[in-house]
């Protein structure tokens, strides 16, 4: 049974629970849960993370924690009962965990690891805190560490700063805004601990000066590695000041044995000392650590005889030094000890031993000897800071090691009251002794004892150094043979204070003999008492003592015998009458010197002080003694403070009249002494004295009298030092006065109360009198007043002991009120005055409400004055924040209405004014970084803002009511409203508080929204009707708008936890303000029209805030605006214009979203429905909604890492919208420029030019002035248009689109000419001329075009379900393009078929891309048909200004004939028409229209055969006219290809398919076409005959067998065709003279690599022609430009099945094989098709069938898989196949590289090289031998630069009109480039597919023109004869382009041929390639001339071409370069020659 839990309310999950039971709650490890009910080992409750989901979980998975439950029951809340810091750490770690992982993802590795470390530390510290085993101090320390780390992490992660007090998070409701501000500041400082400003947080109101921090050196001796001594040693360490030449510390002594270890085994690892109490000043001194080493042993180390072994002497050995200055840097940076090695140097001369350390420091190396090794003393040092207590706390380990505390010789900077010390330091300075008749000097040892008055030797009163116990006797070290020893050894005498008086020191001098006995002989002594007779101690000085003679037998038992003697000269002077008969005789020639230094808190060496303490002994000298007290040192006074004070008050009581003033002065002196930082710690001693020991009950009367007397005289005196001192001592004087009065009234039961009160009243009158004096004339008076004001606040607490709070408050008010209220006294005085007020406010007095009411007015009065004049703002802000802090605290306990009222009246206005001034200053400062640091300004601004907010927060309804009622006039109210709105606006604009001060920002917003709610009613009431004031309303609206847009209020970006916290505390303040704004708008009534259109932009900004409620409230305002403008103007044009303008800029800033668009449309349409103007309204809203769609798309593209294409597409889309739909010219122009910039960035120069042209076209050639706009200056329209034209021309030039730039050049020229600006005219004409040159000479690549379909709803709006055609980049082929598109749309899926997608795809939530290549259909057919136009020029028109594109897809109609697929193979031809022609303002344009046409199998066959004939004719013609020299390979292969195919399948298949009776009867309409096909076949036989005749002529002897085979096969072919085409037999190979009416042109196809295929189809003019003329196209038809198709056909006539072919084919997605466009690419590059994301094989298979249909079937599959399937299948004559390929490729790519073919042939198939079949190698040994050299290089497939395939039709034209070829010709009905399909049946021929390769490479004519057409020919080429018609595609073969081979473009594979060609230096000219079919063209009017007539010319031309080629060998593929030299001349000659021939 489930029962509610009583105790178990809160717990932490200690094991993850998967919630696998019904109602189970899924819990992760570490989550917290709130428990509601329990039942048999299960709990039911919620996770704190998801408080709405209840569920059950096992009880043993939960660790329970104590918690406080409030509001028990259904809605109870549970707060864990744990330290708030622990709770914060837990929450913070959970928040960080998420962000921490993101750091890794964002590659912020450094922060990632740092944060991990900090998180681990936090977890560890939290664990310690939870353990509960820490002391309070440790808890504080752990919390400090925790908060420092929390703040650090929050700052680095960009989270909010957490304000804290004592490590606890503060509740902003419990403290004033000022305090909250300060806490933020201090939290911030603690985060920035690293920066130095932290320590220097400004001290306010003269806080007590900081205690000096003492420094301490911790020194530890690790070892003494000096084993050469072999005796025990004592090492003495001390600190030595080089500049003063003296030790400043005691000595630290270490006793070591002869092995270098401690003599006392317990001391191992404990030889350490702490040199304490070094001040900061000491740290700056030149200090050294000095170590003296004294050995204990025989007299001389190296002489064992010297002295008996049992006697040990202390003998000097060596010394080591270490400069603290040198090591300070390194030891202050680290917190642990650092080791140093000190070398020990020995003294060369013992007499100088006392100076050895100085010599070493000064580096007087002659006086000491360096050690032989580097070893010595190894010590470690550590620098510690802080007082001793702190050091003990922080470094317990040091003290556990038994450290020896080694003090300074004097007192430290700060003398602590409890520090009792009584040390006398004695230094053995020197002695001078007689020889005593000896020949050598003595070895003198001094022994010292301390004796008490009774002669007893005091035990343990001599300390040689800290670290060793004290002893009773001291033995000095012995200097060898030295009668004047100098020791300089310091000994400490810690004598008990009670034994000091009467004690004395005795020094005994002995000579240490080194003779055999070695005894020590006493020969004299000296002594000195420790205290003088007058009670003072031995002075700190050198004392020269008398030496008395004595001997070993002398006895000192009776010390009285010598104590009567004078010990020194001063003593002797004091008692001259000494009897000379005493036992001890003074040795007059011998002296002994010691010096002493006393450090005692009990004994004094000062006579004056002693005299004061014993004043009764000198009653007549009291005045003098009191006067001399000033000269006693401070140390002595504080040591005897209590005694001195007692004495003073006794003296005062003794004779008040006589001594009163002097005692007062002495008291003032002592009190002021305690203000010195050195004695500051003695103030508690003084306080204790006053409380417990002071007994002067009558003193108060005299003290008050003296004080008043001083004050009253301040007006007259010039020197006021003593008055100022009295003022400074005011606090303690009052303490004495009050305590004295208390004692008196205690003793007398309160007598004389009235007199006391009145005397205090009078004293205050004197104080007021002093303060009211005008101090401007006297500087001394200023100081007196300042001193008084400084001490004044300190007396309040004393007065409160005697008077009531109100009385004291009245005193204070009177005093503060007596200060002059003017601010011009002088800045220093102002500061003092304000500091005094500040301390008054901070005093206890001010915390009483009753005193506050009295004091507040005067305090506020002074602050008001200063703020009015903008003086001392920082101090004023401090005072104000203290006041607000106190009032806030009081308001929590009681009522503060009255005080707040006072503050509102006095401060509100002036605060606003101050803030406005500061803010405007700080803004101007940002511009001019002057004045003080910007930080100060920011801080002041922050202070005042927090003060203003504190005040506003304390104000209640009544305060606001009073405030508003108190304004005298509306003008005042208006001014106030404007000020406060302005301040609020600035608050939000300037972001006074840093971004991470979220608590502060939210509180500010809350106060603002509350205040605005109070003020809006006043605004509505006073400024709506007749008194409408635009300025105030406008100010209000802009404030509201700014408020709602504040970044800190945009909760959407906050984490869920933070959002919940904010909403719980404040709600959504944007919504509150939006309601307020809306209601105020409604209150405006007819005045709304004033805010149209001004407020549209701001309101639009508000509606774009992603808060549904705000949007719902605000969007209807637009309807209101439209309505009001409609009423006023009859339309709402302004609203419309403004909305559109602002929408653009706001959306581009990142505001708005899809929901907003829908809501906007929905809400407004709903409102507009009822209006009369609904139609215009609805159309407006619709267009704005559509604009938003586009803007959102645009923004998404811009802000993402989107690719240029998307951005450009978006921009074009938006630009067109502005132009066409809403006609916003300015926005349109802006986007034109944005688009232009994008194009430039992407280097689309042509597109950039077209884009700018749009703007240019809007301008006229007029002088109308234009304003400044975008980056244009203000200028005339003419100037702007001119500038634009120049820029556009420049861009066209960069984009190599010179043809587009030329018309602009002309336009500019006309303008310049009309203005007679000949200079510019000349310039522009030259430019135009240059462009013509460039067209003829510079290479240009023809681009590819791709059709892309974007399907699916996930695409941006402007692409969704649309198809585009894109102009590819240079060298970009289909695969690359497809890859690029997929990377631009990484989510997209590439469709694998070219069919149109269905609805399921169009409507799905995904992205589908359908891409295939398309062929351009040029509009400008005229140019292309003109004969004499160079190919360079035509090439441009083939791919520019194109609006139509074509794409073919093969398919089967009806049943498919297994035997002959050609019967049913149709082609579906799609023509796409674009919205704009390419190129244009974008590389993409949308498809506007699609047209589908089907091409029948017969038409297809016609095109294929026609193309092949054309190719053969061209090739043959080249050989006939000796354009191809020597190497006949190309022709061999070509003939072999055609004949072999014809015999084994090829045209035979067509015969079977179309000449069949069944077919003819079924298709009676095709009769004409069948005839045409027959004619073409006949023509092929004629051409082959001529070809074989030419072949016989040139064939190489080794190749004769091949020729014979060709002849045989040709006969077979003729006979096979004989019965179909009677009359064939009549044609003999020799009949070259005949000409049939067909074909003036022979088109040969250059050799090409499969890649070229791709290109071909597209650009060949033939295609164009073909396509224009016929709608059908055979697969391989060039005409159809479907090279793709071709390809297959070609070689693939062999293709076994379409499938095979498909293996190689490019992905169908690109388009089906036959697609004119795509096919090529696919196939050609079939090998690497996979790279392009081509579909997987199965997919491919689906289409393969259709593809293959284009080809006749074949049986055998050849070995080369690399070729597009066709290439080497069945042994069709490869030439044929190759040729085909070439055809297809022909126009596309530079093709005729012999290398290519050869390489292909010889290199085994590999993906990189188009491999040939093995057959070739066998069959053509000769070839391979011949071209071996070239073969080595495989030719990898690669994409060709676009633009290299240019075909020239010029020649064809010419031929048409000129002479027909001698070969059998046919009419030019179609472009003559169709290859004949090879016979599918033929057995594999010897040449096999490989020939295809060769044949390809051999294709010759092509190349001849290849380069030339490209870049070289600047004039029309000489028209020779049909031979010219070689397809002059500017092709260079692959090699040419990208490999270093010879760029031969002919079918020459033999080096010798190349050589022979090099000789002729002529230029090549472009020859035409295609015939322009003039519809059904009839034979030319003139009979064609026979070939031979043009032979010479031909050769010439050929020569030229070749030379050309050779010259430019290193060209890259597809690149043709201008020929240098006399091009024009050559061309002219050639041309004339051609003409004359004709």
Spell out the blueprint of helices and strands:
Blueprint: E1 3-4, E2 10-13, E3 32-39, E4 42-47, E5 54-58, E6 62-65, E7 67-70, E8 77-80, H1 84-105, H2 109-131, H3 136-156, E9 164-165, E10 168-169, H4 177-191, E11 215-224, E12 232-241, E13 246-247, E14 252-256, E15 272-278, H5 280-284, E16 287-297, E17 313-323, H6 324-333, E18 338-343, E19 345-347, H7 356-362, E20 368-369, E21 376-385, H8 388-394, H9 396-400, E22 404-406, E23 422-432, E24 444-451, E25 473-475, E26 486-493, E27 504-512, E28 520-529, E29 542-549, H10 560-563, H11 569-574, E30 586-600, H12 607-613, H13 622-628, H14 634-639, H15 641-654, H16 656-673, H17 683-693, H18 699-713, H19 721-728, H20 730-748, H21 753-772, H22 779-791, H23 796-802, H24 805-818, H25 827-842, H26 849-868, H27 873-893, H28 897-927, H29 934-954, H30 957-965, H31 970-990, H32 998-1022, H33 1030-1044, H34 1056-1066, H35 1069-1084, H36 1096-1103, H37 1108-1114, H38 1116-1129, H39 1133-1148, H40 1154-1168, H41 1174-1199, H42 1204-1221, H43 1225-1241, H44 1245-1258, E31 1265-1266, E32 1275-1276, H45 1277-1294, H46 1298-1314, H47 1318-1337, E33 1345-1351, ...
Parallel strand pairs: 15-22, 35-36
Antiparallel strand pairs: 1-3, 2-3, 2-6, 3-4, 4-5, 7-8, 9-10, 11-15, 11-21, 12-13, 12-14, 12-16, 16-17, 17-19, 18-21, 19-20, 23-26, 23-30, 24-25, 24-27, 27-28, 28-29, 29-30, 31-32, 33-34, 33-36, 34-39, 36-37, 37-38, 38-39
Helix pairs in contact: 1-2, 1-3, 2-3, 3-4, 4-29, 12-13, 13-16, 15-16, 16-19, 18-20, 18-21, 19-22, 20-23, 21-24, 22-25, 24-26, 25-27, 26-27, 26-28, 27-29, 28-29, 28-31, 31-32, 31-33, 32-33, 32-35, 33-35, 33-36, 35-37, 36-37, 36-39, 38-39, 39-41, 40-41, 41-42, 42-43, 43-44, 44-45, 45-46, 46-47, ...
């Amino acid at each position: 049974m489930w029962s509610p839990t009583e105790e178990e309310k809160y717990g932490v999950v200690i094991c993850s629970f998967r919630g696998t039971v019904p109602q189970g709650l899924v819990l992760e490890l570490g989550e917290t849960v709130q428990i509601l009910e329990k039942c048999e080992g299960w709990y039911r409750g919620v996770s704190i993370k998801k408080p709405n989901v209840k569920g059950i979980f096992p009880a043993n998975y939960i660790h329970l924690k104590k918690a406080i439950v409030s509001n028990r029951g259904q809605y109870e809340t549970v707060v864990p009962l744990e330290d708030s810091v622990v709770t914060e750490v837990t929450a913070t770690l959970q928040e960080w965990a998420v962000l921490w992982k993101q750091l890794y993802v964002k590659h912020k590795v450094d922060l990632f690891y740092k944060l991990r470390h900090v998180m681990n530390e936090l977890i560890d510290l939290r664990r310690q805190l939870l353990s509960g085993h820490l002391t309070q101090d440790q808890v504080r320390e752990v919390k400090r560490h925790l908060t420092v780390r929390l703040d650090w992490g929050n700052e680095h992660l960009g989270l909010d700063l957490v304000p804290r007090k004592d490590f606890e998070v503060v509740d902003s409701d419990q403290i004033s805004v000022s305090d909250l501000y300060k806490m933020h500041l201090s939290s911030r400082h603690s985060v920035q601990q690293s920066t130095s400003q932290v320590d220097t947080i400004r001290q306010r109101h003269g806080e007590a000066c900081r205690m000096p921090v003492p420094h301490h050196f911790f020194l530890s001796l690790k070892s003494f590695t000096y084993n050469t001594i072999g005796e025990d040693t004592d090492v003495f360490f001390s600190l030595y000041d080089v500049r003063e030449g003296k030790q400043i510390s005691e000595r630290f002594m270490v006793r070591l044995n002869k092995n270098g270890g401690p003599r006392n085994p317990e001391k191992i690892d404990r030889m350490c000392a702490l040199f304490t109490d070094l001040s900061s000043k000491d740290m700056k001194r030149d200090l050294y650590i000095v170590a003296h080493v004294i050995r204990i042993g025989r007299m001389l180390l190296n002489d064992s005889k010297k002295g008996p072994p049992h006697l040990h002497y202390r003998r000097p050995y060596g010394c080591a030094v270490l400069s603290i200055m040198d090591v300070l840097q390194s030891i202050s940076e680290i917190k642990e000890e650092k080791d140093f090695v000190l070398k020990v140097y020995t003294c060369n001369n013992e007499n100088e031993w006392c100076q050895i350390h100085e010599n070493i420091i000064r580096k007087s190396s002659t006086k000491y000897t360096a050690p032989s090794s580097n070893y010595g003393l190894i010590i470690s040092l550590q620098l510690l800071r802080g007082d001793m207590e702190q050091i003990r706390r922080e470094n317990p380990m040091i003290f556990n090691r038994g450290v020896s505390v080694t003090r300074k010789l004097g007192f430290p900077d700060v003398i602590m009251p409890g520090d009792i010390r009584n040390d006398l330091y004695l230094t053995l300075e020197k002695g001078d002794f007689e020889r005593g008749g000896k020949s050598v000097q003595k070895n003198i040892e001094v022994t010292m004892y301390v004796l008490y008055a009774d002669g007893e030797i005091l035990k343990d009163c001599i300390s040689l150094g800290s670290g060793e116990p004290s002893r009773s006797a001291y033995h000095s070290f012995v200097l060898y043979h030295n009668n004047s020893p100098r020791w300089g050894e310091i000994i400490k005498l810690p004598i008990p204070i009670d034994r000091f008086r009467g004690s004395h020191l005795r020094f005994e001098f002995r000579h240490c003999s080194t003779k055999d006995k070695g005894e020590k002989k006493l020969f004299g002594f000296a002594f000195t008492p420790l205290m003088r007779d007058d009670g003072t101690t031995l002075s700190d000085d050198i004392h020269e003592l008398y030496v008395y003679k004595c001997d070993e037998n002398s006895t000192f038992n009776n010390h009285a015998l010598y104590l009567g003697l004078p010990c020194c000269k001063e003593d002797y002077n004091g008692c001259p009458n000494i009897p000379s008969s005493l036992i001890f005789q003074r040795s007059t020639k011998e002296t002994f010197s010691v010096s002493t230094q006393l450090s005692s808190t009990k004994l004094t060496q000062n006579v004056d002080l002693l005299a004061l303490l014993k004043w009764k002994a000198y009653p007549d000298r009291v005045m003098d003694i009191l006067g001399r007290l000033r000269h006693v040192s401070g140390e002595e006074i504080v040591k005897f403070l209590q005694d001195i004070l007692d004495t003073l008050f006794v003296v005062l009581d003794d004779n008040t009249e006589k001594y009163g003033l002097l005692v007062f002065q002495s008291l003032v002196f002592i009190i002021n002494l305690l203000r010195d930082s050195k004695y500051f710690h003695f103030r508690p001693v003084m306080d204790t004295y006053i409380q417990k020991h002071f007994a002067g009950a009558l003193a108060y009367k005299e003290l008050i009298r003296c004080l008043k007397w001083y004050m009253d005289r301040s007006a007259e005196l010039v020197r006021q030092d003593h008055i100022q001192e009295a003022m400074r001592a005011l606090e303690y004087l009052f303490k004495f006065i009050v305590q004295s009065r208390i004692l008196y009234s205690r003793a007398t039961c309160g007598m004389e109360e009235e007199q006391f009160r009145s005397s205090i009243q009078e004293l205050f009158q004197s104080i007021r009198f002093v303060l009211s004096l005008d101090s401007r004339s006297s500087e001394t008076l200023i100081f007196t007043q300042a001193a008084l004001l400084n001490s004044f606040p300190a007396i309040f607490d004393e007065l409160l002991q005697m008077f009531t709070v109100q009385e004291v408050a009245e005193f204070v008010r009177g005093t503060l009120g007596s200060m002059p209220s003017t601010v011009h006294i002088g800045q220093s005085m102002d500061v003092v005055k304000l500091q005094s007020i500040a301390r008054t406010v901070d005093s206890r007095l001010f915390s009483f409400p009753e005193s506050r009411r009295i004091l507040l007015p005067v305090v506020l009065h002074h602050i008001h004055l200063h703020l009015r004049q903008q003086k001392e703002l920082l101090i004023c802000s401090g005072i104000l924040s203290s006041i607000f802090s106190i009032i806030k605290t009081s308001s929590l306990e009681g009522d503060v209405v009255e005080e707040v009222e006072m503050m509102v009246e006095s401060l509100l206005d002036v605060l606003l004014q101050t803030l406005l001034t500061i803010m405007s200053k700080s803004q101007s400062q940002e511009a001019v970084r002057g004045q003080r640091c910007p930080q100060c300004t920011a801080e002041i601004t922050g202070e005042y803002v927090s003060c203003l907010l504190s005040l506003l927060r304390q104000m209640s309804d009544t305060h606001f009511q009073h405030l508003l009622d108190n304004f005298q006039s509306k003008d005042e109210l208006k001014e106030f409203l404007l000020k406060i709105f302005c301040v609020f606006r600035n608050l939000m604009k300037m972001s006074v508080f840093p971004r991470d001060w979220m608590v502060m920002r939210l509180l500010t917003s809350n106060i603002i929204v509350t205040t605005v709610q109070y003020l809006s009613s006043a605004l509505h009431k006073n400024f709506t009707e007749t008194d409408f004031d635009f300025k105030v309303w406008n100010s209000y609206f802009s404030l509201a708008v700014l408020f709602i847009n504040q970044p800190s209020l945009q909760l959407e970006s906050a984490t869920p936890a933070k959002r919940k916290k904010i909403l719980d505390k404040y709600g959504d303040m944007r919504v509150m303000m939006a309601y307020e704004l809306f209601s105020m708008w409604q209150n405006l009534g007819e005045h709304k029209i004033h805010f149209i259109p001004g407020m549209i932009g701001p309101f639009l900004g508000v509606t774009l805030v992603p808060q549904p409620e705000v949007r719902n409230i605000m969007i209807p305002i637009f309807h209101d605006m439209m309505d009001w403008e409609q009423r006023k103007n009859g339309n709402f044009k302004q609203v419309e214009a403004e909305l559109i303008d602002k929408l653009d800029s706001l959306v581009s800033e990142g505001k708005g979203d899809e929901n907003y668009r829908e809501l906007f449309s929905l809400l407004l349409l709903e409102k507009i429905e009822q209006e009369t103007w609904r139609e215009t309204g609805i159309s407006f809203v619709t267009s704005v909604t559509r604009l938003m769609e586009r803007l959102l798309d645009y923004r998404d593209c811009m802000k993402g890492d989107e690719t240029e294409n998307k951005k450009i597409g978006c921009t074009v889309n938006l630009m067109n919208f502005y132009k066409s739909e809403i006609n916003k010219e300015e926005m349109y122009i802006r986007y034109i420029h944005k688009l232009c910039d994008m194009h430039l960035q992407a280097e689309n120069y042509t597109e950039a030019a077209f884009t700018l042209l749009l703007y240019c076209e809007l301008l006229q050639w007029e002088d109308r002035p234009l304003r400044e706009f975008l980056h244009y200056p203000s200028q005339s329209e003419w100037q702007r248009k001119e500038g634009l034209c120049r820029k556009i021309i420049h861009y066209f030039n960069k984009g190599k689109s010179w043809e587009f730039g030329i018309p602009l050049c002309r336009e500019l020229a006309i303008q310049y000419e009309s203005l007679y600006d000949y200079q510019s005219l000349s310039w522009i004409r030259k430019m135009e001329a240059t462009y013509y040159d460039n067209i003829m000479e510079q290479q240009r690549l023809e681009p590819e075009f791709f059709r892309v379909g974007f399907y699916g709803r996930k695409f941006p709006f402007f692409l969704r379900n649309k198809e585009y055609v894109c102009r590819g980049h240079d060298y970009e082929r289909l695969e690359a393009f497809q890859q690029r598109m997929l990377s631009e749309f990484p989510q997209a899926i590439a469709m694998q078929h070219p069919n149109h997608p269905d609805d399921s795809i169009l409507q799905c939530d995904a992205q589908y891309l359908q891409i295939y290549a398309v062929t351009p259909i040029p509009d400008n057919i005229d140019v292309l048909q003109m004969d004499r136009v160079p190919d360079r020029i035509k090439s441009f028109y083939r791919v520019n200004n194109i609006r139509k594109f074509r794409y073919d897809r093969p398919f089967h109609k009806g049943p498919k004939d297994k035997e002959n697929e050609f019967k049913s193979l149709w082609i579906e031809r799609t023509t796409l028409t674009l919205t704009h022609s390419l190129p244009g303002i974008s590389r993409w344009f949308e498809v506007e229209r699609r047209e589908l046409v089907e091409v029948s199998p017969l038409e297809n066959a016609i095109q294929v055969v026609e193309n092949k004939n054309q190719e053969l004719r061209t090739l043959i013609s080249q050989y006939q006219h000796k354009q191809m020299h020597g190497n006949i390979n190309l022709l061999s292969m070509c003939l072999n290809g055609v004949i072999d195919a014809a015999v084994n399948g090829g045209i035979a298949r067509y015969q079977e398919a179309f000449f069949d009776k069944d077919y003819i009867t079924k298709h009676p309409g095709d009769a004409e076409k069948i005839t045409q096909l027959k004619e073409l076949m006949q023509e092929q036989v004629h051409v082959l005959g001529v070809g074989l005749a030419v072949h016989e002529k040139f064939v190489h002897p080794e190749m004769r067998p091949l020729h014979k085979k060709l002849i045989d096969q040709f006969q077979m072919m003729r006979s096979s065709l004989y019965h179909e085409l009677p009359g064939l037999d009549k044609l003999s190979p020799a009949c070259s003279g005949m000409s049939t009416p067909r074909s003036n042109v022979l088109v040969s196809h250059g050799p090409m690599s499969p890649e070229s295929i791709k290109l071909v189809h597209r650009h060949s003019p033939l295609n164009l022609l073909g396509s224009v003329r016929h709608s059908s196209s055979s697969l391989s038809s060039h005409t159809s430009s479907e090279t793709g198709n071709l390809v297959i056909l070609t070689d693939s006539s062999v293709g076994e099945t379409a499938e095979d072919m498909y293996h190689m084919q490019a992905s169908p997605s690109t388009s089906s094989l036959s697609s004119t466009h795509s096919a090529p690419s696919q196939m050609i590059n079939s090998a690497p098709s996979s790279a392009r994301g081509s579909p997987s094989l199965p997919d491919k298979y689906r289409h393969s069938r259709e593809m293959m249909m284009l080809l006749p079937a074949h049986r055998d599959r050849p070995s080369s898989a690399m070729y597009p399937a066709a290439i080497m299948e069945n042994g069709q004559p490869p030439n044929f196949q190759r040729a085909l390929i070439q055809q297809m490729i022909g126009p596309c790519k530079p093709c005729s590289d012999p290398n290519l073919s050869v390489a292909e042939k010889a290199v085994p198939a590999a993906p990189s090289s188009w491999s040939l079949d093995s057959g070739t190698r066998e069959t053509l040994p000769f070839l391979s031998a011949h071209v071996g050299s070239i073969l080595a290089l495989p030719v990898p497939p690669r994409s060709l630069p676009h633009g290299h395939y240019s075909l020239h039709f010029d020649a064809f034209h010419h031929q048409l009109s000129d002479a027909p070829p001698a070969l059998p010709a046919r009419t030019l009905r179609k472009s003559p480039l169709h290859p004949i399909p090879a016979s599918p049946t033929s057995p594999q021929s010897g040449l096999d597919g490989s020939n295809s390769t060769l044949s390809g490479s051999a294709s010759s004519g092509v190349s001849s023109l290849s380069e030339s057409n490209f870049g070289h020919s600047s004039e029309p080429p000489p028209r020779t004869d049909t031979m010219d018609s070689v397809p002059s595609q500017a092709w260079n073969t692959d090699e040419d382009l990208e490999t270093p081979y010879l760029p031969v473009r002919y079918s020459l594979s033999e080096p010798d041929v190349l050589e022979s060609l090099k000789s002729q230096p002529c230029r090549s000219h472009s020859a035409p390639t295609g015939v322009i079919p003039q519809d059904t063209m009839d034979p030319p009017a003139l009979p064609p001339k026979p070939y031979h007539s043009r032979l010479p010319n031909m050769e010439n031309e050929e020569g030229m071409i070749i030379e050309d080629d050779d010259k430019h060998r290193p060209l890259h593929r597809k690149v043709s370069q201008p020929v240098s030299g006399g091009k024009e001349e050559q061309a002219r000659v050639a041309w004339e020659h051609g003409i004359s021939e004709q």
